[in-house]
Amino acid sequence: MNWSDEQGRDRAFRELVDAIPDLVCRFSPDGTLLYVNRSYAEYFGRTQADLIGSNFLELVPADTLSYAFEQLRRLEHLSPERPTRTSEHRGGDSAEGESWQEWVDKACFDEQGHMVDLVAVGRDITERRRNEEAVRYQAHHDHLTGLENRHSIMERLDRSLQAAGRSRDAVGLLYIDLDHFKLINDQFGHAAGDAVLRDVAEVLRSCVRSTDCAGRLGGDEFIIVCAGMEDPSDSITSPLGSRPSCTGCNVRCRRASARSSPNRANVSNTSSTEPTHRCTSARGAPPADLGSVRVRDPPPDTRPPPRRRRTRNRRRAPSPSSGATVSRPRGPPKTPSPCST
Q1: Whole-number pLDDT of residue 61
Q2: Angstrom distance (rounded) from CA 142 to CA 197
Q3: Where does residue 77 rank: exposed (0-12), middle (13-18), buried (19+ CB within 10 A)?
Q4: Per-position b or e across 216-229, b if 16+ CB within 10 A of its CB
Q5: Is 53 exposed, middle or buried (CB count within 10 Å of its CB: 0-12, 13-18, 19+)?
Q6: Among 14, 192, 206, 246, which is 20 to 30 Å from 284 by CA?
Q7: Is residue 328 a contact partner of residue 315, using CB atoms and an 8 Å limit?
């Protein structure tokens, strides 16, 4: 290869760019691709000849097209003093899920300062985005039930109260506790208790509105924050009281006036807006099936009855109105002590 002429240097440069794993492209200010390297074409599942002359907006998913178009318009604000810009875009989605890239755009200007074209170098950051999303999810959600954790639910409550102070709306707060939940862990193991907690969380998630927030404080304690309510009592109890039985855990939501039947793991709640509601979970399968557990409530008082003291056979004294006299049995005569003489 002759490196002395310009054509040979250009060919050598293209071969070098084709060999790097990063995505490299050159495009006009309107988005028309003028050059793409081999990695760029393989990443998007096309050939280099097919991509050259097309607009890179065709590679962007439809739901993010407006965002990509806005980013393209922002490139017009680059200047010779500030010719580079870094951004993240989504494109080239596959069956495995979304794909994200980080791009560094460099604008090229002529002698008069007019933008001629742009060169972009991209790198796949899908794995990094997934890890960041997983860390963000774990920081705000309970690992067992998937509901928001204590820290997140308290932040949501603070924001709801601040918004209610400005809009004069009501905020509903439900505190939910599982009755006799310790019996499930003691009799059937913690795996069965975890299954019950997941079932209860699924019921709460399906009962609340899209604007509400259900969370787990810890253990068997749950909380629901209902913001922006005009009638707090109806907004809280209506979805819960009318919900049908859950096929997964057979959890039925009832009013608190309905007496809970035995052999149930009850779910009781209190609320600042005073809703009347009670949930009961019935478990009919054998304990070996962790997907369904049957719990027996303990008796109200397991202590044995107190022993009654034995008394002597005494006759009850007659009442003064009867006029009868009854002689009481006397014990053996007392023996005088030596000290008395």
Answers
A1: 87
A2: 11
A3: exposed
A4: bbeebebbbbbbbb
A5: exposed
A6: 206
A7: yes
Q: Per the structure block, which two tokens stand in for 97?
A: 């899920």
Instruction: Encode burial over 105-142: b for 16+ CB neighbours within 10 A, e otherwise.
Output: bebeeeeeeebeebbbbbebbbeebeeeeeeeeeeebb
- 156: tokens are 């949501």
Report which of 215, 206, 207 is spatially closest to residue 141, judged by C-alpha positions.
215
Q: What phi and psi values does residue 109 have, to the nearest 5 degrees?
A: -120, 155
What's the start-to-end Cα distance of the chain, in Å? 144
d(C-alpha 47, C-alpha 44), whole Å: 9
User: In sequence order, which residues have a C-beta less than 8 Å from that of residue 166 and are 6 or more positions away?
Assistant: none
Residues of the chain with pLDDT under 70: 1-6, 231-341
**Helix, strand, coil abundance in the chain, percent, nearest 5:** 35, 25, 40
The type of residue at 231 is: D
Answer yes or no: are the C-beta atoms of 75 and 87 closer than 8 Å: no
Please tell me the number of Cα atoms within 13 Å of 183 on its side-chain side: 15
Q: Are 214 and 157 in contact (CB under 8 A)?
A: no
> In angstroms, what is the C-alpha Rg of the chain?
39
Let me know: does 225 contact 213? Beta carbons within 8 Å.
yes
At 325, give phi and psi (nearest 5°). Answer: -115, 135
- Which tokens go with 205? 């998630």
Q: What is the pLDDT of residues 147-165, one digit of tens each?
A: 999 999 999 999 888 888 8
Identify which of 103, 92, 9 has the alpha carbon closest to the alpha carbon of residue 43.
92
Quote the tokens at residue 139: 């920081």
Answer whether 306's CB lies under 8 Å from 194's CB: no
Tally of CB atoms within 10 A around 235:
20
Contact 85, 78 (CB under 8 A): yes
Give, in order, the Cα–Cα distances in Å from 19 to each of 6, 14, 49.
Answer: 20, 9, 17
The DSSP code for 101 is E
pLDDT of residue 307: 66
